[in-house]
């Protein structure tokens, strides 16, 4: 098998697959206590504050410029326990799996839970000069799909694994980003001049508090009709999905890697303010298997639906391009434009305009901690459901139906023994016993099939939420860092690091960030209530049907026995 | 704890419990191929036939007398595989557990399946001279009760364990029967003069073939009202059950040991012709625990019901004594008389009078082999149900409800996280999710309790049948031995071992034995059809209720979610 590859000098060519060594850069060493996200930001500001802990050289590569371009927030994120910033505040009783999870120390391919998505490189950089981007294909990522829950790793992995595998993909391994840049919220907080433009994102005061501006009709997209395509004279083949937005009702075609490109753009642009859930797993093996394609399509649909539901994302230029591009040329031009967008990372807050009075720092801090506590608790709750659901799935598809089958077989075997008795008037009993035995075999079938009908949805929804919740530590980390910055305001003024005006601007901008966080939390809550209501209803409805079907089958089996 | 014990010289006295060593005599060594019951009988007749294999001295202790008194058929039974006589004929496909069961080689207390009930001693002999029999108490047997199925040994044990433990009980260990006697069917076949008396047992030709004479109204007994009694100034306490027969409606009291005495009498008298199922386990530990007493009573009730249903047993003098004795004196006199009954063992066939023409040997042999095959197959089928049921019981009372409980807790936990969101309009969802969680906890409870309501009856019935079927190899072995004897007729006549008239008598008596076997098989079949019909109906009825209850609970849980 030949693969398109690029060497460290940027030269591209076909090389045997075996020659390619995919390496992962995981820069976190959790064996020593690692500073929390908030602390990292603080150390980034060590030139402001002599009391800050000494920072490592790598942590000091801060680009203090308003026009830093595509600086990914995620690079500032650090390691093992994204919730550690709020550990002291986290709701008592719930254990923090992540803090004590030694898996985080692993590097390389086999790391089961490469969380969080560290070291996202500069996305523009991974297209070699002149290299047709279409040629960077899915095959680069050799993470295996988890498929159903029964086969997936234990609760800890799941959605985060998807996000994680994504983050540690080939793009990094090619090592084309010599200077990883990172930034804290100061980029926005202390920016001299904010970009004003059409991208204005208003935040209103609604009944529940700050809310985004919602469109009158919600965009909806259908992902359907997966088709196999090929190029390079059949050497490379791929699956193309049809995406049809409710606005134009005109389908556009997208490969998984296009979704991935969109994800990267959204993460880069909105990730500081809005949790952007990861896409479903990449995978090479069995990538064209019907079951896998169906599952991926279902998950891409879920992802698109969630994106469509978000007023900020669905109305963004890049998202609109994705769902409504007119032709190849339109798509290519749009892509290039999106990749050149400079209002990314924390700078997205510069486009947000809350229509409400500024909040004081105490209120900002309280909100931030409240959301952190909640998302942490919910993350625990969701993981518990996934773990329990995973166990239940295994039992329902493994030992339980096997047992019902054995019960059915035992009844039928005894029935056929009875048939051999030679005693007259045996058949009424043996017919009924055989029927009862067959009924238990049918029940075995029902039991084994049921999880795909109900538990599946509970698992998918919670998996989605696990992915979403996994984004919050970053989002909240940015806010926490901003708060720390504002708190240092007086000290910085006294040391003549910033002006009094800078300090006032910082506080005002932290207030804007807080409004954005509140709007996002309110969006999250209303979606959460809708999603859980829906999935619980669906689950219970199917469960009722399941038990009723079994009862009815048994009632029929019972009626075959003669009353005496 | 002091115990009444008797030493080898027959002296009785109170000794510390720890001093008593209960030893078991298991004389079978299955490491070397053991002769089947049929062969044993053949070797017992080695003085008739020079071609017979050399027999061990113990096997030669044949008492060739018509009035041998209480000679237990069971002593002739031998070890490991009671079905081996028909192995070649046994239905293909079903594995013969017993033939390859190495457990049979074990001796001592821990032998898990002491089958068959070997070496039943002479029942009269175990009452020391002058020793009040009431003082030989249950405590002598230290076999533990199996209680529910969940705690019992794997499928192999169960009912046979009861019978087995019974057989290897203290009575043997005291070693008071220096000369174990044993006999084959020749005792009856060649007996010069048959006892004629009121005990005449007619066999009629019914629709299904030979049948016992059934009474117009069937005797029924209620075992109820267990009461704790004590004697020896409170040193010894016991449980007394009230037995009320439907004929007199006058309750009589019996301790477990009285049931045991009755069992011994019935086994001794009818065991060659009628399978007498063992009583439920004896046990010392926790013997007064409510649950145990309830279970034992239920099983004694089951045993009594089965005995009542049998026309030969229920009308026998000893059984009538047991259920209708008038006072202590009546009981004691009746006991003594029963123990002196000489028409026991194979001699019971001498009281049977088939009202049909004699059968030829081929027909006798065919019937015998048919019943052997059937009982062997059914034994396999019943054991399969017990094994599967045991597994199912464990799952339903162990991991399954635990899982439902965890599902319930996970829903409730997530619900309480949601409650902490601070978002308005949360309560509709959280109330519903809490209710759903509680519903799954209730389901956990239902699942755990269900086996006692339905599977319990399936297990009890099959356990009873396992016990019954375990008696057939002996019964059938006697017939097989008789057939072998008749086959040797010409040879024996030629060798002047028997007369021509003896040969004719033997054939006629073998025919009588065959009628008895057929009557018993027809009784067995009709009871079996009734029992399995009943227990399957009961099981399915409860299963329907179970699934309907769950469906209804889930329907209620579902209705609490708001429709959107």
TrEMBL record, chains A, B:
Residues 82-164 are annotated as: Disordered. SUPFAM superfamilies: PX domain. Residues 219-329 form the PX domain. A 1,2-diacyl-sn-glycero-3-phospho-(1D-myo-inositol-4,5-bisphosphate) binds at residues 255, 257, 296. It is a peripheral membrane protein. InterPro entries: AH/BAR_dom_sf (IPR027267), PX_dom (IPR001683), PX_dom_sf (IPR036871), Snx9_fam (IPR014536), SNX9_PX (IPR037426), Sorting_nexin_WASP-bd-dom (IPR019497). This is Sorting nexin. It comes from Astatotilapia calliptera (Eastern happy).
